[in-house]
Amino acid sequence: MKRLIVCAALSLLLALPTGASAKKVPVVSVNQFVEHPALDAVLKGFQDYFKDKNLQVTYNVHNAQANMATTTQIASQIMGEEPDLVLAIATPSAQACAQKIKDRPVLFTAVTDPVSAGLVAGIEAPGGNVTGLSDLSPVARQVDLIREFQPDVKAIGVIYNAGEANSVVLANLLKEACKERGIKVEEASVVNTSGVYQAAKSLVGRCEAVYVPTDNTVVSALESAVKIFDENNLPLYAADTASVPRGAVAALALDYYRMGRQAGKMANRIFNGSKTKDMPVEYLQDLKLLVSKKNAAAMGVRIPQAVLKRADKVLD
After folding, report:
1. Both ends of the chain: CA-CA distance in Å?
2. Beta-bridge partner residues of 313
3. Residue 190, class by beta-carbon neighbours within 10 Å (0-12 exposed, 13-18 middle, 19+ buried)?
4. pLDDT at 13 > cutoff 70
5. What is the DSSP track for 170-191?
6. φ and ψ at 58, to 5 degrees?
7. Widest Cα–Cα separation across the chain
8. Are 109 and 259 in contact (CB under 8 A)?
9. What is the rounded average pLDDT of the residues 45-60?
10. Which of 66, 107, 198, 305 is 20 to 30 A away from residue 33, measured at CA?
11. 154-180 tens-digit pLDDT
12. Structural domains of the chain ordered from first start
C-alpha cells in the first residue's frame, strides 16, 4: 500500500509543469513608425528593462518606414500573431493599432497628445484596451531656449508633417508660445521624407532660427535639412536629444531611452494583471539639455555661457 502511494505521488509530480514551463513567456508585437535614433531608443529602453530584470520576453518587431499605409498593414499582421501585448511606437502606429486591435492590450509610446489622436478617452482614465506614455514637448521652454541663443529672433521656422496628428499639436503649441513672445512662425510642411530637403530650403531668408518638433518624418531625414542650414548659417534647434549629434545646435528634450524603460515597467504591470483601462497615461517629467559646439559654429551662432553651465552634455 505504501508503495502504491509513493508511485501515485511520483506520477502526480511528473504530471505537474516544471518551473520553466509553468510561466508562459509573454510575446510583444511592436509596430514602430520609422527608424530614427529617438524611436530606436524607445524600443531599446523597453527591451533593456526586461533584460535587466532577467525577465524573458519574445518580440515580433515591425517597422513601417514612415509609410502610413504600412502601419495599418502591420496592425493587421499583428492581429494574426496574437501577442500578449502590442507596443506601438509613435502616433501613426498607435492609431493604426488602436483602430484594428480591440482584444488585447495596446501600449503606446512617443505619442504627443493621445486624447486628440483618438487613442484614449482621457489621460487619467483611458477607458479601453489602450494606454501608454506621452512625449508632449515643453514647447514654450524650447522657444525660450532659442531666445537665449538669439535674443533678437523675429521669426522661427518649423518643418513638420501635417499628416502626423502629433506634429499638428506641436505646431499649434509653437504658434501659441511664439505669439506670446512676439515672434512670427514660418511653416514648411512635408508629406514624406523626400520633401524635407526642399522644405528646409524654403525657410532660408524667411526666419533666423528653425525648430524641428518630435516629427517622425522630419527627424528621420534630418541630415538633409542640416545640410541646408549649415550652408546658410541658419541655426537648427531640436525637440529630441538624439538630433543634436546629427546636426542640431541644441535640444531641451525628453530622454526617449528612459521613456522606453518606463514603458517596459508599464508592460510588466499588464503582464501581472493590471488593466489598461485603469492605467493613466504617463509622462516623463525631467528634461535633458544637450548642446553642440561644432554645430553651433557651423550654423553661425554662439552658445551662451549660462546654457553651457547648465547643459547635461556638451558635444565638441
Report:
1. 82
2. 290
3. buried
4. no
5. HHHHHHHHHHHTT-EEEEEEES
6. -100, 135
7. 97
8. yes
9. 98
10. 198
11. 999 999 999 988 899 999 999 999 999
12. 25-135+255-283 (3.40.50.2300), 139-253+288-315 (3.40.50.2300)
Instruction: Look up the pTM and report it.
Output: 0.80
Q: What is the dihedral of CA 187, 108, 138, 305, to 10 degrees?
A: -100
| pLDDT, tens digit, 9 for 90 and up, residues 57-91 | 999 999 999 999 999 999 999 999 999 999 999 99
Contact 210, 232 (CB under 8 A): no
Q: Please, how many CA atoms are within 13 Å of residue 44, restricted to the half-sphere of its CB?
A: 11
All cell numbers assigned to 207 = 526666419
User: What type of residue sits at position 273?
Assistant: G
Quick one: cell of 91? 502616433
CB 94 within 8 Å of CB 117: yes
58-63, strands of its sheet edge to edge: 58-63, 27-32, 85-89, 106-111, 130-134, 282-283
